[in-house]
Amino acid sequence: MKSLEESIARSMECKQIEILPYLPYILQDFDEIGTPPETIVALIKKHQKKYSELNVLDLGCSKGAVSIKISTELNCSCLGIDGIPEFIKEAQQKSLCSNLSHLCKFEIGDIRLRINSLKNYDVVILGSIGNVFGNYYATLSKVSQVLNKNGIIIIDDGYLRDEVESENTELEKREIIVQCGKQLGINLVDEIILSEKRQQQKAYDKELKYIVKRCAELMERFPLNKKIFLEYMEIQKAEYDVLKNAFISSTMVFKR
Predict the structure, then answer these.
(1) How many CA atoms lie within 13 A of 23 on its CB side?
(2) I want to staple 158 with a disulfide (CB 3.0 to 4.6 A). Which of 15, 139, 168, 250 is the partner?
(3) φ, ψ for residue 61 (rounded to 5)?
(4) Burial status of residue 170 (CB atoms within 10 A of its CB: 0-12, 13-18, 19 or more)
């Protein structure tokens, strides 16, 4: 098993773990990293009942935007886990300021290990965390173990367009994802696709500008680490290019 640092770097689309201490600074302009909280709440409302009784698990919760939105809207319990201490500290502070600390809990941890001691969740969320648990078969197999009988898994990620071929073995086609679920007795029961491509591309461009700006500031402050920041920027530019041209961003709901 890769180290926690390597796993975080992989989930954040980094190649070098040396960038990890600087990620909170680089990503300070991102209140929501990845998953749109409103989308997640809408899907929970659609597929679950008795909202206030729900037990929600947010794996790779980042700064807690999704969990806080869920607890605010549905008045239910949420546990968010992430491996970056600065993100969890910010999430805890937001929860406290929103008077949600009795419902919305956050902890620092390695979700690959922590998941082994968790159970009885009605909703499990994986928001833009990549292949932390492995491919889709491994991910659905592992995450389904903590679900209640009628629980759902919500994965905000996406897949390659049918006409696109990629050398990136971590990117799947939709057909493969659906088949992985069926092999485990888990069906894809709902999906929301970002259809406004032009608007989404503008959002991607804005996010990349934030990253370039913060990396430039860090290069001035830490010139000896300039190579690290330059490499990170190049990786992010390539990732955003894939998102804009070869990838369909999708929020998927799986259920037994």
Answers:
(1) 24
(2) 250
(3) -75, -10
(4) exposed
Q: Which among 135, 124, 252, 121 has a CA at the least distance from the CA of 187?
A: 252
**For 250, phi and psi rounded to 5 degrees?**
-145, 145
**Inter-axis angle of helices 197-221 and 226-245, nearest 10:** 180
Cβ-contact 88, 110 below 8 angstroms? no
* 252: nearest Cα among 197, 172, 198, 183: 172
Between CA 208 and CA 241 the distance in angstroms is 10
Beta strands in the chain (DSSP E): 55-59, 77-82, 104-108, 121-127, 147-160, 187-193, 247-255
Structure tokens at 136: 């889709």
Q: What single-letter amino acid sits at 217?
A: E
- pLDDT tens digits, 108-157: 999 999 999 999 999 999 998 888 899 999 999 999 999 999 999 999 99
β-pair partners for 80: 58, 106
Structure tokens at 246: 């070869």
Q: pLDDT grade, residue 196 (50/70/90)? A: low
Token couple for 47: 């597929």
* Chain-centre distance for alpha carbon 222: 29
Nearest to 250 by CA among 205, 200, 191: 191
Name the residue with higher pLDDT: 13 or 53.
53
Nearest-angstrom CA–CA distance, 26 and 33: 12
Question: What is the dihedral sign for C-alpha 184, 120, 159, 233?
Answer: negative
pLDDT at 242 over 90: no
Residue with tokens 């910010």: 90
